[in-house]
Amino acid sequence: MEDCPFCNPNVIKKQKIFETNTEYVLYNIRKTNRGRCLVVPKRHVGNLRELSVKEQASLIKTVSDASGILKNYLHPSGINYGFNEGEIAGQVVSHFHFHILPRFENDPIMKHHLFHGDPKLKSDLDSEELQQLVDEFKKIFDEK
Questions:
Q1: What is the C-alpha to C-alpha distance for residues 30 and 100, in angstroms, rounded to an integer?
Q2: DSSP secondary structure string for all residues of 23-75
Q3: What is the CATH number of the domain that holds 116?
Q4: Mind listing the pLDDT tens digit of every residue in the chain (144 residues)?
Q5: Cα gap 144→6, rounded to integer Å
Q6: pTM here?
Q7: What angle do CA 7, 10, 13 make, to 5 degrees?
Q8: Nearby residues of 87 by Cβ (< 8 Å), 6 or more positions away
Q9: Nearest to residue 51, comparing CAs of 8, 60, 19?
Q10: What pLDDT, on a 0 to 100 scale, did the predictor assign at position 114?
Q11: What per-residue string of b and e applies to 44-79 under the rule 16 or more CB within 10 Å gives b?
């Protein structure tokens, strides 16, 4: 899809910290908790059911592997996992993606929306911040 950010090679290049044969692990551009990642199928699909059973299994394995790496590196108190389907449920990008959100004691998000926090505080990382975090987490994922 031409207008899909998760099909855009420039977005993938800028945010990718890891990939498998069928998924990318992208560092999320939103300013929220450190380590927030997305697991995105390489094939453009709008929802989980459009993935084959084999692709679903691969996606869950990648989510499990990625969250294990994040847990060992960041030592969060917990992790939120999830995805949105449909605009009414908060899906902003029509390409299916799975959120991994490390949680820490007293973190300020999660009061208004499962993944985005208070909509008034919604902002993106600038290019330099994103690049530093992508580079840091690429190294962590490459070590595993």
A1: 13
A2: EEEEE-SBSSSTT-EEEEESS--SSGGGS-HHHHHHHHHHHHHHHHHHHHHH-
A3: 3.30.428.10
A4: 669 999 999 999 999 999 999 999 999 998 888 999 999 999 999 999 999 999 999 999 999 999 999 999 999 999 999 999 999 988 999 999 999 999 998 886 655 455 555 555 567 888 999 899 989 989 988 887
A5: 24
A6: 0.82
A7: 95
A8: none
A9: 60
A10: 54
A11: ebeeeeebeeebeebbeebbebbbebbeebeebeeb
Taken in order 104, 109, 84, 16, the sign of the CA dihedral is: negative
**Would you state the pLDDT for residue 59?**
98
Structure tokens at 71: 């847990």
Name the amino acid, one letter, at 132. Answer: Q
Would you say how long the chain is, in residues?
144
Q: Which amino acid is at 89?
A: A
Domain membership of residue 41 as a residue range: 5-143
Q: How many domains does the chain have?
A: 1
